Amino acid sequence: MKKNNTIEYWISYLISHGVSLDIIEEYTPYITNLVDKNLPVIFELEHLSLLIGIKYLELLKMIHSPDSFYREFDIPKKKGGVRHIVSPYPSLLSCQKWIYNNILKKISIHPAAHGFNLNHSIVTNAQSHLNKKCLLQMDVKDFFPSLPINWVINLFSSLGYSHNVSFNLASLCCLNDKLPQGAATSPYLSNILLVGLDKRLSLLSTSYQLTYTRYADDLCFSGEYIPHELIQTIESIIIDYNLTPNKNKTRLQLNNNKRIVTGISVSGPKATIPRQLKRELKQELYYIQKHGYLSHVTKMKISNPKCLQSLEGKFSFWLQVEPDNDFAKKSLMFLIKLRKENT
């Protein structure tokens, strides 16, 4: 934190702005608590607008009419259906990024949470469940929208912010009184708000000699043996947090060779991408190299103008999971060169 976030700085600042010593004495515990936690001191909304660099009236609109600062759209899910996304406009997005960088990311989360966590990823999430005999996968329905604004207000209050400041910060992070899927703050906020859930499920797993991880709404348990009745116990814990288990996505695999966790195969001693995906990528690359990119696109009636970038992304994912795979390395280099030649 910068040197201007010390108790001495703030007392000097208040004196220079004509604040009486009596009021400064009242403010001192508030300032001390936030400074000790390495958090920015925020007195009221006008002060927050100066810190973020957003005009006061515009910030006021964001807080009281947040729906005017989002665009909404649906994206198709891999297994059918659509996922509703709300995307904040740049002005609101900058506020959310400020809150994340200056407040949220300074708050510790449970080590079982691998999503939206520095030095964690879908790869580390999957690696936790390598080569286990049993695998239990569960899902939370309507994950982000199930986390209400009052939880967020209480979080900021617990950090030491005044009620008004806590309400304003929470309002900048929420839409329709809940976490929106698409806000910059929602992913990490969900991890903070669910530390208690992760702790309970982690302790439960330890008592059964299991490994537990969570990647957003995906819960995964693995070990030598998982009794079927454990599912009901886990569901009851999820419900305790006002969340809803998506029972249609519960999968208990016993001695099954095909195990996929967050899109990664964990059947063997090392994480790999699924065999089916490997076959598909190798086949598509083969046809591009045999017939030429343009002929392949024409023959397959591919209309996506970013087809090559998409394929690059899939091979990059392959290397993320298997960084020493020579075929994936050479293929990615070939695709990058091909894209540059065709742009």
UniProtKB/TrEMBL annotation:
Pfam families: RVT_1. Belongs to the bacterial reverse transcriptase family. GO terms for molecular function: metal ion binding; RNA binding; RNA-directed DNA polymerase activity. It comes from the Bacteria. Residues 1-266 form the Reverse transcriptase domain. Keywords: Antiviral defense, Magnesium, Metal-binding, Nucleotidyltransferase, RNA-directed DNA polymerase, Transferase. Its EC number is 2.7.7.49. It catalyses: DNA(n) + a 2'-deoxyribonucleoside 5'-triphosphate = DNA(n+1) + diphosphate. PANTHER family: NUCLEAR INTRON MATURASE 1, MITOCHONDRIAL-RELATED, RNA-DIRECTED DNA POLYMERASE. This is RNA-directed DNA polymerase. One of its GO terms (biological process) is defense response to virus.
